[in-house]
Amino acid sequence: MADGFATRAIHAGRLPLPAEPPLAAPIWQTSTFVFDDAEHYAHTLHQPRQGYVYTRYENPTTAALEGTVANLEGAAEGLATASGMGAIATVLLSLAGAGDHVVAQRDLYGGTYSLLAHTAPRFGIEVSFVDAGDPDAVRAALRPSTRAVYAETVANPTLTVADLPALAEAAGQRGLPLVVDNTVASPYLCRPIEHGAAVVVHSATKYLGGHSDVVGGLALFAEPERHDAAWRAMIELGASPDPFAAWLVLRGVKTLALRMRAHGANARVLAELLDAHPKVARVHWPGLPGHPTARLAAKLLDGDPGMLSFDLEGGRAAGRRFIEATRVAKLAASLGSTETLVSHPASTTHRQFSPEALAAAGIGEGMVRVSVGLEDAADLAEDFTRALEVA
Question: Which one of 253, 273, 295 terminates a domain?
């Protein structure tokens, strides 16, 4: 007896699995996978990298992204998440719990600072914020209950380059993992695992995706055991990515090298223009010789970063006038895209900071953050010169 219409509409289609592999990774846009026996199903539920059961656990498109970025970072394993904050929260909660302690860099991205300063204590995790440029201060902050040291390769928005080898040594002397947010540098400019980091996190929304059309995150692990613990935390937190989002990031990664070179070249043009302008009090960009971490940047980075920030004479009012006056550069959140984006950290991305915390992190009232895009350098220079006159 033939199956009915509704049954055939659901089951009659045959999924072709060609012998010839596709050049581009397919999008496996499915929530679940089918098994022939219950034992295989049960086994796959608890064993990462040994099959696919449910996309919240693993997905082939997501696995392709994880493997690609793990390769670029020199990691043993990768873990994709729904956002950069999802990656950071997953890693944090896989390393620390109630009664534990974390030492973190003081000048962090605002979302990370908020997670560590406000959300982590609700889970019983205590956090000490220190000057990551001073390894002795990091060592002094360590306790018997410390479970990790957290830093950013290139700080957002001060563009301070972390002394990763020194931080890794300070953490390693106590058997602690160094966790590094490598978003601003990307693996093209720096690979923190080469300098002793145990875990690397990214907002894949930024340079990895690169086109302002996807939100995603990644965590990369020097040791498979840390990946397994984070994978289980990610499942329980529900921080897994959508396959289409993973595919968009995977597509963006293919042009990462080309884009990072162009971002850095344009950033140099703007940094040198701003550094010579009388209305600019200070430029924060480690490619300039006068930057306090210029020597570290030359040692650790394989090129110029595509972000910069600068302090305007005139404080908060001047900063806001500038970001509202640009024509080519757009006033928008995020970074690492094809478009040049400007923001005023004190009132936007770092609004979670108190005035005291802003000052301690080196974020001035008149600071403007710039994510330099891929436009023609001459157009950006003209746009910034005109906006500075307004500011």
Answer: 253
